[in-house]
Amino acid sequence: MNRALALAALFALSANSFAQTTFRVTVENLGPQALSPLFFSASDHTFNIFSLDGTASAGIKAIAEGGNTAPMMGIAGAAGGSVSAFGTLPGGPIMMGQSSSSMFTTDETHGYFSFAMMLGQTNDGFLGESVSTSSLFLFSGGQPRGFSMLITGLRAWDAGTEANTQNAADLGFLGGSGNPADSNTAIRIHDSIVPGIGDSWALQPDWDLNTNLARVTVESVPEPATMVGLGIAAAALLKRKRRS
Ligand SMILES: [Ca+2]
Are 157 and 128 in contact (CB under 8 A)? Predict the structure, then answer.
């Protein structure tokens, strides 16, 4: 095999390895309150973790009311071949100004990315996107693209599972565990904090539709095999250059 063919083969190997795409998901807390550990999934179009104006699953309810991802992890695990990867970001609650990240692997047939995390100092507020809300897709033209999404109060949701009492007895971050039913069960834009309602409204961080709350970024990470291939190709090119 001559050198040109060898190089072509190496680049083909590199391009090929994109089919096995590893991504890194990172969430940054840009807002005024703690966020629960983020649940994420990569799936085909059939795995829709929630719909606006729909009612919350047990998985979304547990995340929105208490930052508990276990039921949603169970739902993802039971979804079989429609979900290629799912997980919960490590490290516990994400405090203001902090971030958390994790790696996962998926392919283009499972290119939809979904996520959900609790707005930690609300009754049942959460941030999240699903197949039916933003349809975040990780590939374009057969190549991994990822995305970066700034989330403002315009996309802060009320899960519709618990009344926004703003009472300490119902707010987990104040030690409460109450769960009074929400009169509106639809997942919808959160009203933020309403002054004068409940005994603890003044202890809850406020926001409005323009407030930056979080940024979620998913970027592709070169596989070790790709790095080795590119390294060998680069070495071969350097060698060739010296000889010419
Ligand atoms: Ca509510």
Answer: yes
